[in-house]
Amino acid sequence: MNIDIREIPFSRFGSYFCISKEKDSEEVYIRDVHGGDDAPSRLFKIEVFVNGQQKEYITVATESSVKFCVKDDTERYAEMIIPEEDELHIEVNGLELSLKPNNGKYDSFMELEEDKYEYHIYSKELKLMLLKLSGSMRVEAPWDIIGNKYINILLQNGHFVLQSYRTVCKEKQYVDFKQGKENVQHLFDKWMQEMGGGYIGNEYKPSLEKAAYITWANMVHPEGILSDYAMYMSKLWMYNIWSWDNCFGALGLAEKNPELAFSQLDIFFKTQDDSGAYPDFVNDKFVSYNCIKPPIFLYTYEKLMEMNDYFKDEKRLRKVYESSKKVMDYFEQYRTDEGRLPHYKHGNDSGWDNASLFHKGMPVEAPDLTSFLIRSFDILSTFAQILGEKEESSKYKDKANTLYEILMERLYDEKGFFGRYGKNAEIIEKRSSLILRLPVIIGYRFERKIMDAIVADLEEHFEAKYGLATERLDSPDYKENGYWLGPIWAPVTYLFIDSLKSYGYEEAARRLSNKFLDLTLQGGMAENFDPLTGKGLVDTSFAWTSSVFLLLLKEKVLEG
């Protein structure tokens, strides 16, 4: 693989280290994603010198290493690998590699032994050990009362290690550079076979390689609040595990890595608030409840059970069931006013941050939220039957039926679904967002004419060259690169494809699936895409996009 580190950071499974190039300045940094996306991530700016003269360099990155070669003399290079999750190794040949941190007020870089330096980074609550295994290391780090005035590091002709830790650096044996590189390659090859085995010969090979690499490299190891390995959405900008997003990662992992798939959900079970709400996101340091996403875990788990018998285990099912009951109680008790349907308090609650449905104000009664709740109650009823909870099964089926009746009374008319907003629950006249078509997830409850009307609406007003735009293509609110005001998003695409396929619209589902697979060849594994050109937008190394691609590719191959 040839990885463009402006688009996809170089990293590896389990590591918080990554290396990326700034898109504007072209500067390259060794980075660290501890602390989530609100924490500073840059550790060291990379520069290359030969005989004291700064040189331009070219970057060559693969799944196992990233190499910086002098532009006019490629035999001179510095190469980096991450052979262990907490170790970054550097091999330098024929040049001086400069590592320049932008150290903060109290940050301190000190020599503990000959050629062994410890770096305390206060803003990240992180420590790094830099040591020389061979070669030459020159350091300038003059002290100024409470920290270093500046820090300059030059590495030359040898093997060096950068190790991260919270408190104490434990002594260990470091692997030979060549062997370390081979070990990483072996790990990725195994992952590639698990995630894409059998598909690699088809026309989607470039997308498959990217998707496999991103789902592998976006993993971080358990630490702090994180109870298990977590698939971050990205190591470029959005480095947390997010509720909702985690479900699509779990689906992508289910067949070959069921334990890891379950962990993506379990992280949220373990951080569930006493109110019943799941966090919006979790990282090693923080749990955020600013936004509460609609309930999708039960939908996900039902699909996981179809994919792998591992998820049918009674203890796991019981854990999902009991946790989900609390989630449903949360929406009933804290998000539902008397005589109304559950509401969002911000567009971010829905995941559709700036969708046109939310332009009038808050709170918003939205048909997608109620539909997710109906689907969840229906699944709870089924799970209760499996677990022998007959009374609860009947109770949850009744709740689903009641919500459905209110949904059709309050948020549906002959023109389709709509929302209500504010303390007086006024009707939102604007109906141009794709979110108002998400009730397709309960298509099994609708009369055929309702589903026919939704599908016709999708095809006439939302379906573009590369898939479903999130705002009507003829809407005055449609914006190029408008986030949820037009661009295509992978998880939403998956929900529509899955629903259409399940409820009798196989041709439309197949067409949208093929469009999305083709889209990745044009726009990569971006956070979202221009529906007309296919250009990848915003964050270009997204795990949920990669997971959805892998799911749809597998389905296409199995269908022949």
Automatic annotation (TrEMBL):
Its GO biological process annotations read: oligosaccharide metabolic process; protein N-linked glycosylation
**Residues in domain Mannosylglycerate hydrolase MGH1-like glycoside hydrolase?**
239-545
Specify whether ATP-binding is a keyword of the entry. Answer: no
Which Pfam families has this protein been placed in? MGH1-like_GH (PF22422)
| GO molecular-function term, one example from the UniProt record | Glc3Man9GlcNAc2 oligosaccharide glucosidase activity
Q: Does the keyword Cell membrane apply?
A: no
**Keywords associated with the record:** Glycosidase, Hydrolase
Superkingdom is Bacteria
Which family, according to the similarity comment? Belongs to the glycosyl hydrolase 63 family.
Q: State the name under which the record lists this protein.
A: Mannosylglycerate hydrolase MGH1-like glycoside hydrolase domain-containing protein
Taxonomic lineage is: Bacteria, Bacillati, Bacillota, Bacilli, Bacillales
